[in-house]
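Final report, Chapter 2: Outcomes

The project's central promise was a pipeline that accepts a single protein chain and returns its three-dimensional structure in a standardized token representation, suitable for archiving and comparison. That pipeline is now operational. To close this chapter, we reproduce one record exactly as it appears in the project archive, with the input sequence first and the structure output second.
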Amino acid sequence: MTPIKSRLTLMFFVLIVAAAAAQEKALPVLQYVDGNGNSYEFTADGSTYVLDFAPVKKDMKSRKYDGGEPATRRVSKEKFDAVQARMDEVIKKKRLASSRDRGTALIIKLVKDDFKEYVLPQNSKDIKEIEALLYTLF
């Protein structure tokens, strides 16, 4: 095999391994996006969950909203279950918004290998309660 073919083969192998590793990353089982676009994403990790907070960052030119610093926390199954139960209560009420407009919140759940989205109306009591519960995890 020529040196060029060897390099190409090696690069191809590295790409295949990288693609396989990327596919193995667990899908989030629950995600909440607040009215500003900050995201709280729960991913199962054995008997616990990993909570990733991905804030909207400030644009220095326009001096717009800054959601804070990104953070990751390990969350017990009990705490995750409490958050999920509260979100399920909100979903069951069926007081949902018809579209995702500014100020609305979004719940995304993985249900039987399919993502379901639920939009909560702006300034709702449910949004305040869910966010208060999420804040206690940090």
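Archive annotation: The beta strands are 30-33, 39-45, 48-54, 71-75, 105-111, 114-120.
This record, like all others produced under the grant, will remain available to the consortium after the project formally closes.
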